[in-house]
């Protein structure tokens, strides 16, 4: 079967750094996405990785290791507005997105 | 640019009734998708369309039907609603299903079936 695992909830302090992990087992791999979803809102795109390594975009970075079936999203200089759920999704061999349940990130002042 | 819109925003529906959730995009995207999102579960694909005139079944298609008569519109119909279809429904679109094409999401429809 296909499976995406992420922690259910994480807590971090404003100004700090947090790493949200995602492991996956899918039938094929054609890329991994991270999306942000604020409560009551739609998911919005954060990053896309298809090759191994780190992709940096401002305060957010995403890492991929295809051999390990592993990715992480790194958020630096946390702000209160970063309180949201972070969704990991993998594109399988049929180019369908398989979604994790999401990690709820709580930022404390 | 409106992007992708959904209607209604929310709805309470009696079990056994039918309903159509509307979705329209103005980005001229080829691919469109319908997901449901339930607490503790990831987004689950109901139906998708790679291009106008074609549709396909996703992970949880039973009880739902779709049509794609043109590029912009992708309505989702519940023929006879059941309480287990209570969920938040998101429509999304992307330029294509290939590669790193991100999906853009509508604001969602919150549906309660009683």
Q: In angstroms, what separates the terminal alpha carbons of chain A?
A: 40 Å
Mean pLDDT of chain A: 95
Catalogue the unreliable spans of chain B.
none
Based on DSSP secondary structure assignment, what is the total number of beta strands of chain A? 11
Main sheet attributes: strand count, strand direction, barrel closure of chain B: 7 strands, mixed
The total strand number of chain B stands at: 11
Quick one: which chains have the greatest interface?
A-B, 21 and 20 residues
User: Could you describe the largest sheet of chain A, including whether it forms a barrel?
Assistant: 6 strands, mixed
Question: Can you give a write-up of this model?
Answer:
The complex is a heterodimer of chains A (109) and B (114). Chain A has 109 residues and is mainly beta. Helices cover 0% and strands 57% of the residues of chain A. Chain A has no helices and 11 strands. Chain A has strands at 3-5, 9-13, 18-25, 32-37, 44-49, 53-57, 60-65, 70-75, 84-91, 97-99, 103-108. Chain A starts with a strand and ends with a strand. Chain B has 114 residues and is mainly β. Chain B contains no helices and 11 strands. In chain B, strands 2, 4, 5, 6, 9, 10 and 11 form a 7-stranded mixed sheet that branches. The A-B interface holds A 4, 30-31, 33, 41-45, 48, 50, 87, 89, 95-102 and B 40-45, 48, 58, 90, 97-100, 102-108.
């Amino acid at each position: 079967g296909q499976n995406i695992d992420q922690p259910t909830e994480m807590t971090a302090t404003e100004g700090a750094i947090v790493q949200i992990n995602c492991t996956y087992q899918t039938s094929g791999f054609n890329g991994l996405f991270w999306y942000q979803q604020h409560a009551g809102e739609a998911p919005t795109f954060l990053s896309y990785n298809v090759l191994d390594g780190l992709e940096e975009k401002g305060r957010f970075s995403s890492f991929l290791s295809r051999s390990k079936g592993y990715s992480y999203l790194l958020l630096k200089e946390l702000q209160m507005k970063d309180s949201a759920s972070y969704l990991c999704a993998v594109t399988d061999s049929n180019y369908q997105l398989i979604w994790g349940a999401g990690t709820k990130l709580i930022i404390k002042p | 640019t409106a992007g992708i819109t959904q209607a209604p925003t929310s709805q309470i529906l009696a079990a056994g009734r039918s309903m159509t959730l509307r979705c329209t995009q103005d980005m001229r995207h080829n691919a469109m998708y319908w997901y449901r999102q339930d607490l503790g579960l990831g987004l689950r694909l109901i139906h998708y369309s790679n291009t106008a005139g074609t549709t396909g079944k996703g992970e949880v298609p039973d009880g739902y039907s779709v049509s794609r008569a043109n590029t912009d519109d992708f309505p989702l119909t519940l023929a006879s609603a059941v309480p287990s279809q209570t969920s938040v429904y998101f429509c999304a679109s992307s330029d294509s299903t290939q590669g790193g094409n991100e999906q853009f999401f509508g604001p969602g429809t919150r549906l309660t079936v009683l």
